[in-house]
Design goal:
The complex is a heterodimer. In chain A, helix 1 packs antiparallel against helix 5 and helix 4 packs across helix 5. Chain A has three domains: about 220 residues, no CATH class; about 170 residues, no CATH class; about 45 residues, no CATH class. Chain A is of the alpha+beta class. In chain A, strand 1 and strand 2 form a beta hairpin. Chain B is globular and about 80 Å long. The N and C termini of chain B lie far apart (about 60 Å). Chain B is α+β, with helices and mostly antiparallel strands. The relative contact order of chain B is 0.10. Classes of the chains: A alpha+beta, B alpha+beta.
């Protein structure tokens, strides 16, 4: 028994080490990447796989969008380039949205690691590029051909020799050739680091290969995940959520079947594909769907083939969550980020009180630009104004949790970080005049939804600039749960009054300012059940107005900002007005 | 009595007030005396006086013969962690009152839907926006609305605010609005401490700067009060020497500077440890070192190359969430760059849903402490595991002042870990030890990747109560062949204080596109920075020679992280653009293995540091070797081999320089014990340090 116990500890130490190996791989990528979303927002992924393409470990650094998508990508690589034909020093690459991670901006690179002439594992990494040609990050493309350079799964390095002609082709097709080439090198380098660390690990633990450890990881993770699934009541749970979409509102419809050791989420009934670039390839649908499930089912179990296998995701071809080639897909996160909310609506029926209310979910990134041809109003070319292109990452409010208020101005399910206003202003002519919480934007509830924020932006220069909008929750709010109220809708307008659309490129004329009001998250539980003291505190902090305190929460607060207890008791005794 | 050059009198005292223990080290000539007492959190000066008194008595030194007291304290850190600082308000640019709460709009824990962000030190109702606006280039876009500043005054009075931070956008480039607002408030709010963001942190990135300013204001009244009480208590004891304060950067400052910028005192204890490791590295001629400081709650790991610890300007205090990055409050101050993880003697072991052993970051602390303390703790800790594995002598813990109960340790391990995993208490202990060592090793590896450094071939310098117990195993895991356990390992940070230089670092943000390099404003800037630093250093070292260093924080245009680049001293000229850019490319290549051709380079910030030389230890000399006598034997569990082995036991204070012994062995001292595994040999160096060297493979 003692030997078995020691073996058990040894496996755990080796598993921890393997997780550390991929974390080092990921850190190398983050530190050397060029595009803002990879570097600042950790929009990257790194993992190690066995010969069959099963993922054994994935770095925690990264966004949920790559969780399942990259896990499956390696199988596509070895289907095209079988492992037995790989040589030492080979590296493969793709940005195929359907076989990789959902859009052309994500490059996935796979590197086999050799020891004594045999492959002991494969390292894969994904990074978001600053540009891939085409029409850029705008969702205005109608086909994936509009969206940039398409790289099929192909060799990038062969036996140590990089394909220079390929790099030249890439450089010729993108707007930021130096940075894109730098990102390709950083992907190669991070896989190399992973490979070196793996070899050192095999030596230290006197391991021949990863097979035995891989088996241990996959079986234990699968067992723990199935056990977590089996703690849920079996059954079929349906949920539907309507969101803004582009040319028509989109219904996301899910049917979740919880059975013995398995959860199946099927999206039959969801809206058809859009003619614009907001379609969400199935790999990305799988990623955010399984993320939503994993938030509740075994969240501490590391991502690997074992923990991901019991969660299955299907969607009919031709729906917005399974668009076929050549649908445009660049802003697939517009849909993908909404999927955990849809999943939560199913899970809430299985186990009430475990999942949050709906939130903003979709990122409210400000993609601002100025320059020739970018705005409706002509951009001066006499040197009086500077062209720029900048994305800053922002979020509205998240949904209230069963026992906690929603997080204000915080992304969920994505995990990006914002860029400081002072940095944005130092490298562009923009000026941010306001970045503050929006009073009353959090959905009312026993637990209040997170607040959205208001940003007001102008340019210091006498020139127009433009915004690429990919915003949701402008027409359909984040709904509350268990009698919680909806979050405030988002809004986009010019200071001079004109309302702007929530999707597409639009111009902010010279001298004008854009006002961006981000949505709030839904509330959880009946607002009248929120303790009056907490409502008073929200009013004192200016998060909730006195009017909303009275109307939504039945809490009366005097002009002197004191709680009027008798009036509150009377108001709360009235029949409740359900949101 | 005091030599002005070296600031030494007959005796010098270092005081390190930690979360659990207050350590005092007294050095007089060749003698060194240490004292360790429990920290007295309500009035830390009481513990300090108790320990100083003990040390003076055992050294036979009179209070009047003390020439210098050097002090480091976690008081500011604890006030931030426990949210026990002053009632603080923030006056900021209109439209940005939520900046310190919105932070980086970041979820630092991907899967936890119950994650909570740290609450800001200033609640929203005490954050006031006033109309004003400075642009990134310093231009005033909107004049300061002075009437608006005045209308804040009655609100601050009504709320009985004790401290105010003023933070305006881009004040690091144009500070006039912050200074004017300060004048208006100071005239109307006597007795209220005011912190200006550009003074405490003249750097770009508004959230970090405001967070630093608010933290400074928040701890200022508390620290001022404590430092005053401590000064009086020392005077009452008869100690009339100067008092210098240790900073997180590893330099020392006078009381005056410490009172103005108390936030710079955060984490001064660990900085002392890094200074110790640095001085040891030089005296032992170890040019590549990993310093490893493991105490009761956390372990601190620091890379030291060419006898200089890595420095950084950003730091996060009060991480509330399993030490995760992003779960604390950012402080942008000069710090010694360390990774701190929740792994110490008191770290508690549990078993997770995958039946994996997890250790820390929760710590049993001093109360109830590990199960073996017999103070009511029932959860197994790393110390319990060390005891069950035979590494600690139950009858000789803390120099015999405390008796440990191996039965309680074994029972806690059996109950919590053994039953869940169907293993004996000893195997469970081995598992806990392996996992905590692996956690520390992984943290060290990821940190070294972030720094672009390699660990293989380094020497581990191990100190702090728990480090010598785990150091050799950690060295195994990191591919390192040498471990140095310094004399006085258990009170390493305080010893480090005695070796620290008097120094001060000034950082300023001034954006510069290197394609349009303009030396004139930089020379002005460095002139101001040098004057500022010199004024601080001269308070503590009126005549000593000072060393200057200058750095730039540079990146390729648009990147998010800056690389530290050493700059030449003296006036910059137009021709230096190429020199500086080349230095950047070299630093970048060292970090990332390559450079990016044709991409413009930009500098965000500049720093200048002045420091006295600090104390140099004599070079460790070779001494004749001899085999010492063991004082007994003990049964140890060898984690690597999975079996019990017999180890010889030595008393460290009976080992003479030159003593050489082979593992497996245990070298016991008052505050800790050094484990020498079978694969290592140990040698006592001339200064009393123990050097473990991996035996050549047979």
């Amino acid at each position: 028994m003692s030997n078995n116990s020691l073996a058990q500890i040894r496996f755990q130490v080796m598993w921890n080490r393997l997780l550390s190996v991929v974390e080092e791989q990921a850190q190398t990528l983050v530190r050397t990447a060029f595009s803002t979303s990879s570097r600042e927002a950790g929009d990257i992924s790194a993992g190690v796989f066995d010969h069959e393409g099963r993922m054994l470990a994935q770095a925690v650094t990264g966004t949920p969008g790559h969780i399942n998508s990259m896990a499956l990508a390696v199988k596509h690589f070895i289907a095209k380039f079988p492992v037995r034909g790989m040589r030492e020093g080979d590296v493969y690459i793709t940005n195929d949205p359907w076989l990789g991670t959902g859009h052309l901006h994500d490059l996935t690179v796979v590197t086999p690691t050799f020891r004594g002439g045999e492959i002991v594992g494969l390292f894969a990494s994904t990074s978001h590029l600053v540009d891939i040609g085409g029409i850029g990050q705008s969702p205005d493309g109608r086909q994936v051909y509009h969206e940039g350079l398409y790289i099929p799964i192909m060799p990038l390095v062969s036996q140590g020799r990089i394909n220079e002609w390929f790099l030249e082709l890439v450089r010729a097709n993108v707007r930021e050739p130096v940075q894109v080439e730098g990102d390709i090198y950083s992907l190669i380098a991070c896989n190399e680091v992973g490979g070196r660390r793996l070899l050192a690990m095999l030596d230290e633990f006197r391991m021949v290969d990863l097979d035995e450890l891989g088996h241990h990881i996959v079986t234990n993770s699968a067992r723990a995940t199935k056990a977590a699934i089996n703690r849920l009541p079996q059954g079929i749970y349906r949920n539907s959520m309507r969101i803004d979409g582009r040319e028509f509102p989109i219904d996301l419809v899910a049917t979740m079947t919880i059975s013995e050791g398995e959860i199946l989420v099927d999206f039959t009934g969801s809206s058809p594909v859009s003619s614009y670039g907001i379609n969400c390839p199935l790999c990305y649908t799988e990623a955010y769907t399984s993320f939503g499930v994993r938030c509740v089912v075994g969240p501490r179990i590391p991502n690997n083939a074992g923990s991901l296998a019991p969660i299955k995701v299907t969607a009919p071809l031709g729906t917005i969550v399974n668009p076929p080639h050549p649908c445009a897909v660049v802003a697939r996160s517009t849909i993908g980020h909404m999927l955990p909310d849809v999943v939560f609506g199913c899970l809430d029926q299985a186990v009430a009180g475990k999942v949050p209310a709906e939130g903003t979910s979709n990122l409210w990134n400000l993609k601002l630009m100025a320059g020739h041809g970018l705005s409706e109003e002509a951009f001066p070319l006499d040197g009086s104004a500077s062209p720029f292109n900048i994305t800053s990452f922002h979020s509205g409010g998240a949904g209230a949790r069963p026992a906690l208020d929603g997080l204000s101005a915080t992304p969920f399910p994505s995990g990006v970080r914002n860029v400081p206003v002072e940095i944005s202003e130092a490298i562009t002519p923009i000026v941010v005049w306001e970045k503050e919480y929006r009073t009353d934007s959090g959905g009312a509830g026993r637990q209040r939804g997170g607040l959205g924020q208001r940003m007001i932006v102008s340019s210091r220069e006498p020139a127009p600039f433009a915004i690429d909008a990919t915003f949701e929750r402008v027409h359909y709010a984040a709904r509350g749960r268990h009698q919680g109220g909806p979050g405030a809708k988002g809004r986009l307008r010019l200071a001079t009054g004109k309302e702007l659309n929530n999707k597409g490129r639009q111009t902010i004329p010279t001298g004008d300012r854009i006002i961006v009001e981000m949505p709030g998250g839904g509330g959880f539980g009946a607002p009248f059940e929120r303790p009056a003291e907490l409502v008073l505190d929200d009013v004192l902090k200016g998060l909730v107005s006195r009017r909303a305190a009275a109307e939504d929460y039945g809490v009366v607060i005097t002009e002197a900002m004191a709680l009027d207890r008798p009036a509150t008791d009377r108001a709360r005794a009235q029949p409740r007005r359900l949101p | 009595m005091i030599d002005k050059e070296t600031m030494t009198g007959i005796a010098r005292i270092a005081v390190d007030v930690g979360g659990t223990f207050t350590d005092v080290v007294l050095e007089a000539g060749e003698r060194r005396v240490t004292a360790k007492v429990l920290t007295t959190p309500a009035a830390p000066e009481l513990g300090v006086i108790e320990a100083v008194t003990t040390a003076l008595q055992s050294a036979g030194v009179k209070p009047g013969e003390v020439g210098l007291v050097i002090h480091g304290t976690t008081l500011a850190t604890n006030a931030l962690i426990e949210r026990k600082g002053a009632k603080t308000a923030l006056v900021t640019t209109e439209g940005f009152r939520d900046s310190i709460e919105i932070a980086y709009e970041h979820r630092f824990e991907q899967y936890d839907i119950y994650m909570q962000r740290p609450s800001p030190l200033v609640p929203r109702e005490l954050r006031f926006g006033v109309a004003e606006r400075v642009a990134a280039d310093g231009a005033v876009l909107l004049a300061l609305d002075e009437a608006a500043v005045r209308t804040v005054v009655p609100l601050l009075k009504a709320a009985a605010v004790e401290a105010v931070a003023i933070g305006f956008l881009h004040s690091y480039v144009n500070d006039s609005h912050e200074r004017r607002a300060r004048d208006i408030l100071a005239a109307r709010l006597p007795g209220v401490a005011i912190t200006l963001s550009h003074e405490v942190c003249p750097e770009i990135r508004e959230y970090d700067r405001f967070s630093t300013a608010v933290a400074n204001a928040y701890v200022q009244p508390l620290m001022a009060g404590y430092l005053e009480r401590l000064g009086k208590a020392l005077t009452a004891l008869g100690v009339s020497s100067p008092l210098l304060l240790m900073m997180s950067s590893g330099g020392m400052v006078t009381l005056e500077t410490a009172r103005a910028f108390p936030v710079r005192l955060v984490e001064s204890g660990p900085a002392g440890g890094a200074i110790l490791a640095k001085t040891l590295a030089r005296s032992c001629r170890l040019d590549r070192v990993l310093s490893f400081d493991m105490g009761g709650t956390t372990a601190k790991i620091c890379l030291i190359d060419d006898y200089e610890p890595r420095v950084s300007r950003s730091f996060e205090v009060a991480r509330m969430y399993r030490f995760l990055k992003g779960s604390g409050l950012p402080l942008r101050i000069p710090v010694i760059d360390m990774v701190e993880i929740g792994a110490g003697g008191g770290s508690i072991a549990t078993v997770d849903e995958l039946k994996r052993i997890a250790v820390g970051p929760t710590s049993a602390g001093a109360a109830p402490g590990p199960a073996c303390y017999g103070l009511g703790g029932t959860l197994p800790t790393v110390t319990d595991a060390d005891l069950v594995l035979g590494r600690i002598d139950a009858g000789y813990f803390a120099g015999g002042k405390m008796t440990l109960d191996p039965g309680r340790a074994a029972s806690a391990l059996e109950t919590v870990v053994g039953r869940a995993l169907e293993m004996t208490d000893v195997i469970a202990a081995a598992g806990v030890s392996e996992i905590v060592d692996e956690n520390m090793a992984n943290a060290a590896r990821v940190h070294s990747v972030e720094c672009g450094k390699d660990l293989v071939g380094r020497t581990l310098i191990a100190f702090g109560g728990a480090a010598p117990l785990h150091a050799a195993r950690l060295a195994d895991k990191l591919g390192m062949d040498r471990v140095l356990v310094p004399a006085g390992a258990g009170v390493g940070s305080a010893i480090g204080f005695l070796q620290a230089p008097i120094g001060y670092e000034v950082v300023r943000s001034r954006y510069m596109d290197m394609r349009q390099f303009d030396p004139a404003p930089l020379n002005d800037l460095f002139g101001q920075m040098r004057a500022e630093a010199l004024a601080v250093v001269r308070q503590g070292a009126p005549e000593a020679a000072v060393r200057e260093s200058r750095q730039a924080f540079m990146r390729y245009r648009g990147q998010g992280h800056e690389v530290v680049v050493n700059l030449p001293l003296g006036e910059l000229t137009g021709g230096d653009a190429a020199t500086v850019e080349e230095a950047f490319q070299a630093a970048y290549r060292a970090l990332y293995g390559r450079t990016i051709p044709n991409l413009p380079v930009e500098a965000m910030s500049w720093s200048l540091a002045l420091a006295t030389a600090g104390v140099e230890l004599p070079e460790v000399a070779a001494v004749g070797r001899h085999a010492p006598l063991a004082s007994g034997t003990r049964t140890l569990f060898d984690v690597d081999r999975g079996t019990t082995i017999e180890a010889l036991v030595y008393r460290r204070n009976s080992l003479e320089p030159g003593a050489t012994l082979a593992g497996p062995a245990v070298i016991v001292e008052d505050e800790t014990a050094t484990i020498v595994p079978g694969g290592f040999a140990a040698e006592v160096l001339s200064a009393g340090h123990i050097l473990l060297t991996r035996k050549a493979a047979p």
